Amino acid sequence: MPYTMEVNVAKNQVVVKAFGLTETDVPAYISDFEAAMKKLKPGFTGVTDVTESKSILTPEVAAMLAPTGELAVAHGVGGWVYVANSPVWKMQMNRLFGKFAVYYPTYEEADAYLNSLSE
Length: 119
What we know:
The chain is of the alpha/beta class. Helices cover 44% and strands 21% of the residues. The chain has helices at residues 26-39, 59-74, 87-97, 107-117; strands at residues 3-8, 13-18, 45-49, 79-83, 102-104.
């Protein structure tokens, strides 16, 4: 599986771990993302962990994934953070998601940041 997507309804959060998405994977990813959005309430948070991904996104995959940012905004995202340890990933996520592109090197730091948003 090129990714996992877990929804924690109690925490109102979705956690994605990406291991390397291809154009073939994107339709299932978007479908799973839409299903996740339906389980969450406005103000939800999200984490995308790309630390185990073997490669960055191709321009084609990045373009195909771009609507997920708009979808998250439409569903009332309260904050999103990326766990990334590569400058190239950081640059790519910044281009795709702009102001929602906040990065931390570990999940624990990312989670602490998101928790601080609701304090």
